[in-house]
Structure formats: structure tokens, C-alpha cells
């Protein structure tokens, strides 16, 4: 897990849940064999609408006080960053209302997030021309990967609030990524490090049978 001082982690890794999700990937659970068009349909294939907001993670929830929070941007960037809370909050602030889609089948409409757009952070870090992928690491040890192009899209945000309130610990506070166009496992909670890379590096679920890309409209659940 993390070596950062002053960050406590409670709970135990849910090995059983991880094995169950690996089995779902092997079985191709929930696959409908259809695709949908985000311009026309609001609910991606095989998804069910949720009213509440479920909590999904590996079972360990780090407690990251704002004084201990760091957001590091490293690898293929002209300017390496290690932002503390004040440095992060000094970046341009944005809001967005988006739908989210978890691969275990729930979707949730109209979530209002506040935070810093990835674009506004990358404008400071300045990826080098060789940078094509990102690997993200979290305080619970979770990792996931994206192409730089999708990471830098206009609707991708380091979110610190939800419905006008600070993002709760269970949903990844103080800061999580929100990337609405892909399944929600591509939106890491308790994020602390972004590494820009020339070659792709599959993350926690991507090496456990889940799709490397994860587009809900194309049912890219497993890969
Ligand atoms: N750090 C971390 N981020 C994570 C996860 C995790 O286990 N650890 N789980 C992912 C999965 S599978 C989903 S569906 C969403 C769930 O976010 P929520 O608990 O806020 O609904 O977080 C994603 N980000
Ligand atoms: Mo998920």
C-alpha cells in the first residue's frame, strides 16, 4: 500500500469480491451482445439505473487528511508537480453534471462534481511529445490506465466535491478522478499519482480480465 506518513487505511482487502469479479470477467457476465448510441440512448447496454450511489472499492478506505494530501504528476512531463492541498485548490475550478456507469451494472444520472479539470492541470505539467498514456496510483494501492487523449478530454476532472459538498471518504475524497465516458473503474478514488508514459501499463482490473479501454456504449466490459 502507501508509504506516505500520516495516512491511515482501514478495512481489509476483499479477496472474495476480487475473485468474484475475476470470475464475472471469465464468464462474460451481463454481456448483451449489443451496443448503444450515446447520442440517442442514455442508458448503456446491460446497465440498470440506480437512485442511490453505491460504494465500490477493494475494501480498504484510506483516510487522507487535507494536510497530508499530495497530487504528483510525474514521468514524461516538462514540469513535475507535487501539489499540496492549497496548490491543488489554486488551480482553475470547474463544475460538471455527468452520468456514471459501473461495470457491475449500475448507472447513475446527473452527478454534479466540482474540481479541477485534467486539462487545466496538464497545462501546468506540460506532457512531452512522447507521452501517450497515463498510469494512476491511489492511496489504497489501486491503479488504472488511460490513453493521454482520453485523460485530457474536456469532461475529465479531479473532483473534490459532489452536489456542492466535499467528496466523502467512501467515494474517494479528498480527490478522485471522474471520467464519465468510460466504465467507472477508470475513475480512481483517493488518487495521489499520475505518471505519463510512452507505453501503456494496464492497471488493477485491466490485468484481471477487464477491458483495457472500457467504453460502456460498446460493452467493453472484459478484455
Ligand atoms: N482507489 C480506488 N479507486 C477506485 C476503485 C478502487 O477499488 N480503489 N474502484 C473502482 C470501481 S470498480 C468503481 S465502480 C468506482 C466506484 O466509485 P464509488 O465507490 O464512488 O461508486 O471506483 C473506482 N475507483
Ligand atoms: Mo466498478
From TrEMBL:
Signal peptide: none
Residues annotated as domain Oxidoreductase molybdopterin-binding: 62-205
InterPro entries (UniProt xref): OxRdtase_Mopterin-bd_dom (IPR000572), OxRdtase_Mopterin-bd_sf (IPR036374)
Gene3D superfamilies: Oxidoreductase, molybdopterin-binding domain
Domain of life per record: Bacteria
Name of the molecule in the record: Sulfite oxidase-like oxidoreductase
